[in-house]
Amino acid sequence: MSDSTEVRDQHQHRRLSAQEWEQQWQRTWKESGKMAYEINATDEHSAVSEERALLMEVRSPVRERERLKRISDEFVQGFDKLYGVGPAVTVFGSARFHEGHKYYDLGCEVGRELAKAGFAVLTGGGPGMMEAANRGAKEAGGASLGLNIILPFEQAPNPYVDQTIEFHYFFVRKVCLVKYSCAFICLPGGFGTLDELFEAATLIQCGKIGPFPLILIGEEFWSGVRDFTAHLLGEGAIGMEDTGFARITDSPKEAVELVVASLPVELKERLKPRS
Q1: What CATH number did the domain enclosing 99 receive?
Q2: Given 31, 75, 132, 254, which is the most exposed site by the fewest CB atoms within 10 A?
Q3: For the chain, what is the domain count?
Q4: In whole angstroms, what is the distance from residue 40 CA to residue 53 CA?
Q5: Dihedral of the CA atoms 99, 10, 4, 151 (nearest 10)?
Q6: pLDDT (tens digit per residue) in 94-124
Q7: What is the pLDDT of residues 30-75, one digit of tens each?
Q8: Which residues contact 104 (CB under 8 A, 6 or more apart)?
Q9: 116 in a domain, yes or no?
């Protein structure tokens, strides 16, 4: 058993006390280093100049326009390469569950069922659950695409994608993952998966997209989301109509059947199921 597995097992199904949370918060900020916030360019002297040196970056209209150009170019690249893809389903999930883990097997089954139903599978293109979904799709003969994010520690595309599209900006990648999908399936994951899950839920809630099926696979894993949603409801932060934002199931087959059933006739006719 690896050290990481032992640590994970030690912390499984336990609650953090307020003191433990505070200690970890303090440790995180103590080790995080300097903040990389950008401040406006200015001709003022001394204190501001020292602040610039400390923060390392200076914001200026020229630099902002350069950044906008890079963002726009990434959107154009994504739109051009994904325009002809579909019908497609995006699968979200952690990069930390690898081959041999029960969640990895679950991810392969999801990709396989989607491909058999005729869907292209979109993922973040990385390892773990993303790799599993791409692998299941590819081995079933379906289209498998990875929208990979460029990270300082170089997240390499997994070997089961037919096409890789690389992004520098998380939010551009996320827009493309959402824009070209007719449903979202969330496998077990961490902060990134929760971010993607709740952004999709918010967009659907506000009528900005869909309505599209949002399906969480892993009844035990996702039970905490149901509990926290009940807490939000009890506090008055959401309404009862918001509590059904996602379907939770253990069955990849059921999940894909729900997606197919949700499609308009015109989209169903474009599916090319595989035996």
Answers
A1: 3.40.50.450
A2: 31
A3: 1
A4: 13
A5: 90
A6: 999 999 999 999 999 999 999 999 999 999 9
A7: 776 665 555 666 555 445 454 444 445 667 788 889 989 999 999 9
A8: 97, 98, 128, 129, 131, 132
A9: yes
